[in-house]
Amino acid sequence: MSNTLFDPVQVGAWQLPNRVVMAPLTRNRAPGQIPTAIMATYYGQRAHPVSGAGLIVSEGTPVCAEGHGYSDTPGLHRPEQVEAWKPVTAAVHAQGGHIVAQLWHVGRISHVELQPDGQAPVAPSAVRANAKCYLIKDENGQRSGGFVDCSEPRALSIDEIAGVVESFAQGARNAIAAGFDGVEIHGANGYLLDQFLREESNRRDDGYGGSIANRCRIVIEVVRACCDAIGTDRVGLRLSPVMEGNGAVCDPQAQAIHEHLLRELAPLGLAYLHLIEGQTGGARDHKPFDYAALRAAYRNAGGRGAWMVNNGYDLALARQSLAEGADLIAFGKAFIANPDLTARLRQGGPFNEPDRATFYGGGEAARGYTDYPALT
Ligand code: 8OZ
Q1: Which of 24, 110, 127, 215 could disulfide-link 69, Cβ–Cβ 3.0 to 4.6 Å?
Q2: Among 147, 348, 125, 352, which residue's Cα sits nearest to residue 245?
């Protein structure tokens, strides 16, 4: 008999009480890029071992100043940010939960006004993304703005790539200092690492571009550096092989790229691989991709990390996926609206509906953030 969503599982260094994961969810609730008190309430509400997530993945948290592409996203690169994350991780642990920090660098999905000294965002190549980023301006005490076109990026030099890798490693060390149980490296959704994987955004002719091996190189270096920094059993990686959006187009070699990447990573002993199936937040069959073949490539190369899947899951689909070999199911929007999602899944519902109007922003207001009711 296959496992159910409610069976415990050992994932890397963590003994998780169930297989329900809270997916990373950008909420833009951190003015000045610093986590706030209400974020501790929000994550704590979702952390209970019986009613909440077995594992929480934090919203994306940039590892360096250049890694920001949206206003009010909480970073993990300045000492005051590390301090401000501590009450969040403490609130999760007070409930008996587990939380990893999602380490993020947006690359070209940014705007000069979000960059240090108004510089161009950095990217594999100087190719502008046909995409928007989120920019709120503060003028005379008034906040205004919204989605704006991404700026033209500039290509990272080889030396700067080493610096980016080190930023992720430092982000991992900072995560542990802030009380996180580990990290998830954001290699998905058209951000910096994903930009290296795809030929449309990566036009480099050095060791980081061209061949599949070269395009995967920075991701492997980042994973290794984070593993060296905090231990392989505390590191996961998120990928979205065929996602389109954020300017990313599906790469004609998506299957081969991801199989190469996971074969290379297999011997490391990562805690988990996190796969967004299909179009992030959209159709699961967006483009052809053989996820079973990807997992087989990883397993056949000796990869033993937990296999986490995400995108549009309900109870029936979760059951099917667990029976077919997945270990963990990540739920996103459902966790926005249901702090006790696991309790609701256990009894087959009912589920609160998420309100899209309050997905992003809202500062320290409870509305649409910490005021979704739990079952009584
Ligand atoms: C929604 C809005 C802004 C950022 C992702 C980090 O797609 C994000 C994100 C999602 O991975």
Answers
A1: 110
A2: 147
Could you confirm whether 313 is annotated as catalytic?
A: no
What Å distances lie between residue 259 and 18, 186, 227, 264, 309, CA to CA? Answer: 28, 17, 20, 9, 16
Nearest-CA neighbor of 98 among 19, 170, 193? 19
What digits encode the pLDDT tens for the residues 101-139? 999 999 999 999 999 999 999 999 999 999 999 899 888
Q: How confident is the model at residue 194 (pLDDT cuts 50, 70, 90)?
A: very high
The reported pTM is 0.98
pLDDT in tens, 257-272: 999 999 999 999 999 9
Buried b (16+ CB within 10 A) or exposed e, 50-74: ebbbbbbbbbbbbbbbbbbbbbbbb
The proportion of the chain whose per-residue pLDDT surpasses 70, expressed as a percent, equals 99
Find out whether 215 and 262 touch, Cβ atoms under 8 Å.
no
Distance CA 174, CA 78 (A): 9
Domains in the chain with CATH codes? 9-358 (3.20.20.70)
| Cα(262)–Cα(258) distance, integer angstroms | 6
Q: Which one of 26, 76, 108, 243 would you pick to mutate in the ligand 1 pocket, going by the greatest count of ligand atoms within 8 A of its CB?
A: 26
42 residue type, one letter: Y
Q: Tell me the two tokens of residue 22.
A: 């809270």
For atom 4 of ligand 1, the residue with the nearest CA is: 26
DSSP 203-238: ---STTSSSHHHHHHHHHHHHHHHHHHH-GGGEEEE
- For residue 26, how far is its CA from the centre of ligand 1 (angstroms)? 5
Round to whole Å and give the CA distance between 143 and 158: 38
Q: Which amino acid is at 324?
A: E
| CA atoms of 46 and 186, how far apart (whole Å) | 21
The pLDDT of residue 3 = 75
> Over 90: is that where the pLDDT of 216 sits?
yes
CA of 301 to the centre of ligand 1 (A): 31
Ligand 1: distance of its center to the CA of 369 in Å? 17
Q: Give the single-character DSSP code of 157.
A: P
DSSP-assigned letter for residue 216: H
User: What does the pLDDT look like over 322-358, one tens digit per residue?
Assistant: 999 999 999 999 999 999 999 999 999 999 999 999 9
